[in-house]
Amino acid sequence: MEHFFKTLLLFAATALCEIVGCYLPYLWLRKGGSVLLLLPAAISLALFVWLLTLHPAATGRVYAAYGGVYVSVALLWLWQVDGIKPDRWDITGCIMMLLGMAVILLAPRAGS
């Protein structure tokens, strides 16, 4: 179970890097931000890719499980950065995604 929580934290950091890497160009393109935002965006996206490589599981399985955590972090971003509180449907969907992620990560597999 300790491995599960370490993986969950790694996924959360990965999701945050991906969101920041996409949000900064959005600020530049849609909100009149400085073109200099592209530099930290590129660094954040490079960190996102590197963090994905730290998982020992099969790449496709990592991406599938990561999706559930990404949804959760994106909803936290919606609330904390965009100032929009997730509603019950957001939360229900998030819980469903996290349950799916847990099934993928915690399933007993041959050779694991």
Strands, helices and their partners?
Layout: H1 2-30, H2 38-52, H3 59-80, H4 88-106
Features:
112 residues, mainly alpha, 4 helices, flat
In short:
This protein has 112 residues and is mainly α. The chain has 4 helices and no strands.
How would you describe this structure to a colleague?
The structure is a single chain. The protein has 112 residues and is mostly helical. It has one domain (2-106). The protein has 4 helices and no strands. The protein has helices spanning 2-30, 38-52, 59-80, 88-106. It is flat and about 50 Å long. The protein starts with a helix and ends in a 6-residue tail after the last helix.
* Major sheet description: none
The tally of helices reads 4
Distance between the ends? 14 Å
Q: What share of the residues lie within helices?
A: over 70%
Beta-strand content estimate = under 5%
The tally of domains stands at 1
Structural class: mainly alpha
Average per-residue pLDDT, rounded, comes to: 91
- Tell me the number of strands: 0
Flag low-confidence runs.
none
Whole-angstrom Rg: 16 Å
> How do the helices and strands follow one another from N- to C-terminus?
HHHH
| Overall geometry | flat
